[in-house]
Design a protein that fits this description.
DNA-binding transcriptional LysR family regulator, two-stranded antiparallel sheet, rod-shaped, alpha/beta, WH-like_DNA-bd_sf, seven-stranded mixed sheet, D-Maltodextrin-Binding Protein, domain 2, Arc Repressor Mutant, subunit A, LysR_subst-bd, DNA-binding transcription factor activity, 11 strands, DNA-binding, 44% helix
């Protein structure tokens, strides 16, 4: 049974005329008649009583008609669904990002994407790069914004560098300025400072601790274990200082003193990643383009 045969059958059933049905489906009348006969042979029953000038449905035709209409309607719905996805009227993007990237980079880009494609659902998962790489590998995410280098061993991912961001020191305006009041602070100046530190597995925690150890000291934690919003809140409350991305500090600077790190400073590289063996869906590719062109 072919889809085209069902179209021809419904056209004849609705017009009760082979010639008018052929005009309706834009096919020659002999071809339509041949397809109807082929359908009847396959089903083993006549579908129409063909009296001269009077076409009526047989019992078999009456039974087939609602089923054929439903099949054609479902096919039409499927065609529209696919077209809407292809034209980015509907769909979803599953994007993973570290909390600091969610705070600093994503709001403006996601707003622009949503304005352009309001029918696309945005599903955002926050997590550390280790967690996001694992979610990408198992197919739970389409794209992820991760910090390079990737954790090892890493699955086969394609990465494109998005930005290289400076890190800065934030402190409470009511607390003494770190580094003795200078306009910039060195990593070595953080020795003796009480640090507000992120939870284990957080990229910024690992980077900050490694930088302190490279200067020959172990960092002193006033409080540890928070996500980005919690860390900034603890700093505002005067519990200590923290090392955060410049973009986050700029967006969250209210109630914070921001001090740059002296050269060479500390930096991190953000990359856009997806699985190498599976192309992201079209909506995800469009978001990827907007992120790269931001």
């Amino acid at each position: 049974m072919q889809f085209q045969q069902l179209q021809y059958f419904v056209a004849v059933a609705e017009t009760r005329h082979f010639t008018r049905a052929a005009d309706l489906v834009h096919v020659a009348q002999p071809s339509l008649s041949q397809q109807i006969k082929a359908l009847e042979r396959e089903l083993g029953a006549d579908l129409f009583l063909r009296a001269r000038g009077n076409i009526t449905l047989t019992d078999a035709g009456e039974a087939l008609l609602p089923l054929a209409r439903r099949i054609l309607a479902d096919a039409d719905t499927a065609r529209h669904e696919v077209q809407e996805l292809a034209q980015l009227r509907r769909g979803r993007v599953r994007l993973g990002a570290t909390p600091s990237v969610c705070t600093g980079l994503l709001p403006d880009v996601l707003r622009a994407f949503h304005d352009r494609y309001p029918g696309i659902r945005l599903l955002i998962e926050e997590g550390g790069s280790h967690d996001l790489v694992r979610e990408l590998a198992r197919g739970a995410l389409d794209l992820a914004l991760v910090v390079l280098p990737l954790p090892t061993p890493a699955p086969a991912l394609t990465t494109v560098e998005l930005l290289r961001e400076d890190l800065v020191v934030v402190s409470s305006p009511d607390a003494p300025r770190p580094g003795g009041g200078r306009r910039t602070v060195r990593v070595a100046d953080l020795e003796g400072e009480r640090l507000v530190m992120f939870r284990h597995g957080y990229d910024l925690r690992e980077l900050t601790v490694a930088a302190c150890r490279a200067e020959g000291f172990e960092p002193d934690f006033a409080v540890e274990g928070g996500e980005m919003d919690a860390v900034l809140g603890f700093v505002r409350a005067g519990l200590g200082v923290a090392v955060v991305p410049r973009m986050v500090a700029a967006r969250s600077g209210r109630g914070l003193r921001v001090t740059p790190l002296a050269r060479p400073g500390l930096h991190r590289t953000i990359a856009l990643a997806h699985r190498s063996d599976v192309a992201p869906p079209r909506a995800a590719r469009e978001l990827q383009r907007m992120l790269l062109e931001r």
